[in-house]
Amino acid sequence: MLKKVCREVTVEKMLPFGQSARVGEFFELRFENPGWSGWRPGQFVMIRPSDWDQSLIWGRPFSISRVSEAENTVSVFFQSVGRGTGRMAQLAPGDKVTVWGPLGNSFAMEPDTPTLLLAGGVGIAPFVGYAEQHPHPEKLELVFAHRLPRECYPYEDFAACTHSCLEEHSPDDLPRIIDTLQHKVREYRDGLILCCGPTPFMRTVQTAALKVGARAQVSLENRMACGVGACLGCVCKDGKGHHVQTCTRGPVFWAQDVTL
Amino acid sequence: MDLAVDVAGLKLKNPILTASGTYGFGVEFSAFGDLAALGGIVAKGLSLKPREGNPMPRIAETPCGMLNAIGIQNPGVEAFVDKILPAMPWKETAVVANLYACDAQEFGELAGILAAEQGIAALEVNVSCPNVSQGGALFGADPGQIARVTEAVKNKAGTKPVWVKLSPNVTDVAVCARAAEQGGADALSLINTLTGMAVDARTRRPRLANVVGGLSGPAIKPVALRCVHQAVQAVSIPVVGIGGISCAEDVLEFLLVGAHAVQVGTANFLRPDFAFRLVDELEEMVQSLRLSSWEEYRGSLEIGN
What we know:
Chain A is of the alpha+beta class.
């Protein structure tokens, strides 16, 4: 098991993405590596800016997007949507953040298995590091579904593997996207399917995978307070309908082991 | 100065315990510090049978606090005794079990099982959970029930000290404090969460599936201090202060109004090593203020001229 640590570290970079979207909405946040001995794609990290007063209590969970040995940094990718991420969008290099991680389990990685990565919106984040760490990126195919322009997301990082986009402009596009997802899942029936995105997106993939007997994993996101399995605020239902912690039993679940 | 305290015969190496429901069974935090450094750990609330708890969403962040409606999800006392307690650091620090049941008889049964365990240092009776449809805060608002439940637990607790955890959602906390004392409680702990609610004006939905939940965090500290102050005045047994503590100065404030020890809850979510750092911070503060002993400082609030 990888050792978890809690440290206060320095923000190294804030890289805005997608200037065509609302300004200040999408960011890659890079912070000093807190001394992690290792990490696995699919794991997440809790981040709480050190200058937050007590008006905001919780840290915020983010998929680890990449860990750079050369820069000695950890990256997360986020969209500014609420009070917490809105204030995180104001971070600047040199600011301090308290981070604890790496947390949770990780995606299956099978070097020789054709693997389909299904990302919805900011759900693309964990696949950046997954594609970088995979010994045979030519075995990977990314299908990326998104609503906002492509440059809002770290899509350019997937040059090394097969990749395609499904852009949703209007509600009419939804049946086409669902249809494509179902086809892709069937195509990878004997491979490995990894999915991260909004719940309806993952539910579509889960349903399709269970129907054709494909091996699929989904990565969940929930409101979290502790991130370490204690508060029971983030639970989901496992395959038997029992509440389990998303933070420690997940965030990655096999499709048959979780109720979405 | 020695930070050790004695709460109704239970020796703690310092006055800082972690509050039930915010710290799991302690082991979840062992990567972030030495659990032996804590005064004690109050374990997640336990019931006779396993409980799945409430539907999601169960937590919501509010200004300087949070709401929760977990609903005492727990593996049941049997699984706790067999699998969880052996892995807890009970030889190194005080492990307090927190008990939840729907009537006095069940409370007694639960107390009997837990009192037989060497690893349990004390029993904390939860008559104040706002998030369950039976028992919980319904008992907590009824002095007669508080006394009956306390007595039932005390009868089965053997030599283990019994703490009764009180609710702030009452007209007069002093009446409830006295009821617990009359039922035989060895100590009181308060406050549990304040009932609260949050809604989303845009989606027109409640932020918790349970609609109402319990408010905790720094926002409730003034209410907690007031309740602890009133309880201390009302009874002669020790009081453990809980509610919104997020720094060493907060700890001292509770001791100043007369608490023997404190529990920290929501602040554990500020960072997972919070409780360990708090112990260090308290030690430094006690030194810098040149306090001589807890006996001298406890309850030394100077009111009036």
